[in-house]
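Many introductory courses stop at the sequence. We go one step further.
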Amino acid sequence: MPRPNRGPYLAYVRDRGRWYIQWSDAGRTRQRSTGTSDSGAAQIALAEFIRERERASRPAGPRDPSQFAIADALTLYGTEHAPEAADPKRIGYAIAALIPFWAGRSIGDITRETCRAYARERKRADGTIRRELATLRAAINYAKDEGRITYAPTVHLPKKPEGKDRWLRRSEAAALLNAARTGHASTRPYLPLFILIALYTGARKGAILSLRWTQVDLEGERINFNEAGRTRTSKGRAHLPIPRRLLTFLRLARRRGADLGYVVHRDGAKLDNMKRAFNTACDDAGLEDVTPHTLRHTCGTWMAQQGVPLDKIGGWLGHTDSRTTALYAHHHPDFMEEARNAADRRIA
């Protein structure tokens, strides 16, 4: 019985002092020099050789989804689209979560049942599953748009979970801020400022952590969360007047920062993740079910409770009108007041 074809592999030829790519073709062993004795460079040459062979053997024109691997679609999306996206890391995390289940399956295997099976195996919240499967859907649509497949099957997402209405009362916000100010010495320089910016502006965590001093006009009292060159997404970032109380804290922080540096930073470096520091402050303050996004929701809720018109709240947070109404209308003192007055007038 003939040996199975193991595909291209590397072999080191000692008398030539180089790595060679070897493979079997029609029962004969073929060989190509990588031109290097470095194993890392040889691995790169092997990978490129394999890609060339795959491109040469790939049939012309779009393929049926049953003939296109999901792993290939995710790789295509991750290497070609993700680097140009607004949040490539988020795409990368989703792809890493998707691969273990979907590897070895074709796009044609995507059905309502396999999507449900993925959710059962992942054992994560519906919101997480929804984001990950949305990345799978985007990757498949990208493959279709690039002419790799004839059509894109439906990716079945869980229902969108209802938004949490968790917001901080002013006493809770004060407790959190105090815990941040008296917490670990390594987090005291940045965590209280992050909390203040979030509560006063309602900006998202990513917008605050990427904020540079060049975006803060202390003289004109304006703050612009849209950094230069950022790709605009549905998650709007606002250009706001700086609340006067926050202005005081920013002026104090500015004395400690560099002209081009980040407003919220650790020893001058950008913070990519502050989850542990934030959670520790919440624990010290006795707060449950609180995340950095809770601070954004708190900002909008406080505005609604003070009677700020909903369209103004939406402009401040960068929301659409419908999103603002759904989140904050029930906190507004005038919510449905006109309707109630009209109903009163109809009663004899």
